[in-house]
Design brief:
Layout (H helix, E strand, L loop, with lengths): L2 E13 L2 E13 L4 E5 L6 H9 L6 E8 L2 E2 L7 E4 L11 H6 L8 H14 L15 H14 L4 E5 L7 H18 L2 E5 L3 H7 L2 E6 L2 E7 L13 H13 L15
Parallel strand pairs: 3-8, 3-9, 6-7, 7-8
Antiparallel strand pairs: 1-2, 1-4, 4-5, 9-10
Helix pairs in contact: 3-4
Bound molecules: adenosine-5'-triphosphate.
Length: 260
């Protein structure tokens, strides 16, 4: 099946003479073009999962595959962009220069402009192109970080708690923008978040990790209701919360879930 596929992935980190099992026997499929949200308690392995997909870490066991039909694409053939919780902009470069930075030296001036200008427009940053990061708000800075990732024209966009440091209203506004961006670009998005409402509002499906294992996968019906308080979400939210934390009747439960 097409998409990113994790097969029996295990990732262990050595720590103080012992080891931490960040991921254990994780099998997961992320279809091309989907927006998959990943939730779970702190330390359950969400960031490790993103780092494996980005190729920043290798699995200790198992594999991460990129499948087109029955063909395995080489990792180099799949462009992956990563957006962190903190924007990590260069403070001495303007908004426009930050967006262009990863392209300088790889593309000519005109081509860079052709990529950067539509991004400024897409992200509502046209009026701030010459502003420095210290002169814009946190929400705008996070938009620049997103734009910098999109400037690479990635096939896969990995978002690690991208709204974590933002206030409620900016967060809601950016959530809407990410959803819209996903629809408009058709790229594959993998979003790590602590916020179950956010995961349900944006994800085509919500993957729940628990102690490094797949605890549940909840599919969100399409078309999704606009409001996260819509009754459609209530049972889905209960499932996700139950899988994250276990339930009173079944503490520590880890469900066996279909790999694909
Ligand atoms: N480089 C590392 N060295 C040692 N242990 C690590 C390393 N990276 C992650 N871990 C451990 O692996 C486990 C999973 O970490 P990970 O960062 O993936 O969790 P997370 O779900 O993203 O957490 P959070 O929500 O707090 O960001 C944790 O116990 C963490 O301490």
């Amino acid at each position: 099946m097409d998409g990113i596929r994790l097969e029996g992935v295990r990732r262990v980190f050595p720590l103080e003479g012992g080891e931490v099992r960040a991921l254990e026997d994780l099998s997961l499929r992320v279809p091309w073009g989907s927006l998959t949200a990943v939730v779970g308690r702190s330390g359950c392995g969400k960031t490790t999962l993103l780092r494996l997909v980005a190729g920043l870490n290798e699995p200790t066991a198992g594999r991460v595959r990129f499948l087109q039909g029955s063909e395995d694409l080489p990792r180099e053939a799949v462009r992956v962009g990563l957006v962190f919780q903190e924007p990590r902009l260069m403070p001495w470069l303007s908004v426009e220069e930050n967006l262009a930075f990863p392209l300088v030296g790889r593309l000519g001036r005109e081509e860079i402009r052709r990529r950067v200008d539509p991004l400024l427009e897409l992200l509502g940053l046209e009026g701030f192109r010459r502003a420095l990061p210290g002169q814009i708000s946190g929400g705008m800075a996070q938009r620049v970080a997103l734009g910098r990732t999109l400037a690479h024209d990635p096939d896969v966009v990995l978002l690690d708690e991208p709204f974590g440091s933002l206030d409620y209203f900016t967060r809601r506004a950016l959530q809407g923008e990410i959803g819209e961006l996903h629809r408009r670009t058709g790229k594959t998005f993998l979003l790590v978040t602590h916020d179950v409402d956010e995961a349900l509002a944006l994800g085509d499906s919500v993957v729940v990790l628990r102690q490094g294992r797949l605890a549940d996968r909840v599919e969100v019906p399409f078309p999704r209701p606009r409001d996260v308080d819509d009754p459609v979400f209530a049972p889905l939210k209960r499932s996700v919360l139950g899988a994250i934390g276990g339930t009173a009747e079944d503490p520590g439960r880890t469900k066996e879930v279909e790999a694909s």
